[in-house]
């Protein structure tokens, strides 16, 4: 496979482009690409450009070739509202959700979230999560980068939520995704933390018009549940 890289800016129509230091380091030192090898640059807004790597000392340049607009986005708009999970589980969820075609990811603080972030740490984690999304686009061929939104409390998100349908994953939920009719607009899928939603959180979701949905008789981990839901939705109404 040809290596793909996100270029953080507008891509010129033609000519030669100096690669940013971080991108050049990844291409030359991590992937060990050689002078003259093919690569693809994409701008995160839909365009990608075929290019050839030109190496001069420690610097890398891209000789730009054909530019094209390739749409690999799902026709389904799914927003994954993921309760904070501990360790590297959030990285895993974001990476795989991007591969599965999610349109946006909204981290939320839940009552039973093991991970607790101060404002400063939340900003650092947000920057890291956004880079995880970029890397997942590079790997999966997506030319548009899904938005990873700033962390919010669940209550605040529910109070502001007005756009599209809302489904909260809950063991013993009233219906499964295969029982639902397709509704217009974005589909929001709410996934609880390791300890699950509390009764008060589920009541708040009910009050905000969210529907409780089950993924079957087995209890799935937080890092599994949202991805399973995305796969089901893509199979029903997306591009699987």
From TrEMBL:
Under what name is this protein listed?
Ribosomal RNA small subunit methyltransferase E
Q: Name one GO biological process term.
A: rRNA base methylation
| Organismal lineage | Bacteria, Pseudomonadati, Pseudomonadota, Betaproteobacteria, Rhodocyclales
Alphabetical keyword list = Cytoplasm, Methyltransferase, rRNA processing, S-adenosyl-L-methionine, Transferase
- The answer to keyword Cytoplasm applying to this record is yes
Q: Main location per UniProt?
A: cytoplasm
Q: Where in the cell is it found?
A: Cytoplasm
Family of this protein = Belongs to the RNA methyltransferase RsmE family.
Q: What does this protein do?
A: Specifically methylates the N3 position of the uracil ring of uridine 1498 (m3U1498) in 16S rRNA. Acts on the fully assembled 30S ribosomal subunit.
Looking up Gene3D superfamilies in the UniProt record yields: 3.40.1280.10, Hypothetical PUA domain-like, domain 1
Give the EC number(s) under which this enzyme is classified. Answer: 2.1.1.193
Transcription among keywords: no
Superkingdom of the source? Bacteria
Tell me, what is one Gene Ontology molecular-function annotation carried by this entry? rRNA (uridine-N3-)-methyltransferase activity
Q: InterPro entries in the record, alphabetically?
A: Alpha/beta_knot_MTases (IPR029028), PUA-like_sf (IPR015947), RsmE (IPR006700), RsmE_MTase_dom (IPR046886), RsmE_PUA-like (IPR046887), tRNA_m1G_MTases_N (IPR029026)
**Where would I find the Ribosomal RNA small subunit methyltransferase E methyltransferase domain in this sequence?**
73-234
Catalytic activity line of the entry = uridine(1498) in 16S rRNA + S-adenosyl-L-methionine = N(3)-methyluridine(1498) in 16S rRNA + S-adenosyl-L-homocysteine + H(+)
Gene Ontology CC: one annotated term: cytoplasm
- The Ribosomal RNA small subunit methyltransferase E PUA-like domain covers which part of the protein? 19-58
Transmembrane domains' residue ranges: none
């Amino acid at each position: 496979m040809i290596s793909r890289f996100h270029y953080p800016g507008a891509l010129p129509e033609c000519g030669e482009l100096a690669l940013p230091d971080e991108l050049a380091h990844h291409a030359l030192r991590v992937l060990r690409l050689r002078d003259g090898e093919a690569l693809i640059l994409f701008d995160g807004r839909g365009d990608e450009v075929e290019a050839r790597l030109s190496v001069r000392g420690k610097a890398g340049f891209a000789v730009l070739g054909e530019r094209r607009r390739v749409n690999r986005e799902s026709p389904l708009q799914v927003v994954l509202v993921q309760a904070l999970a501990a360790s590297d589980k959030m990285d895993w969820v974001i990476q795989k959700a991007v591969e599965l075609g999610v349109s946006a990811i909204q981290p939320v603080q839940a009552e039973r979230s093991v991970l607790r972030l101060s404002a400063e740490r939340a900003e650092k984690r947000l920057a890291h999560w956004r880079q995880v999304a970029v890397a997942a686009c590079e790997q999966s061929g997506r030319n548009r980068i899904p938005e990873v939104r700033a962390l919010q409390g669940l209550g605040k998100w529910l109070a502001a939520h007005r756009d599209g349908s809302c489904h909260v994953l809950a063991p013993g939920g009233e219906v499964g995704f295969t029982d639902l009719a397709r509704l217009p607009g974005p589909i929001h899928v709410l996934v609880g933390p390791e300890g699950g939603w509390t009764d008060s959180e589920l009541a708040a979701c009910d009050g905000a018009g969210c529907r409780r949905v089950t993924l079957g008789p087995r209890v799935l981990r937080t890092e599994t549940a949202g991805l399973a839901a995305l796969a089901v939705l893509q199979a029903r109404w997306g591009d699987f």
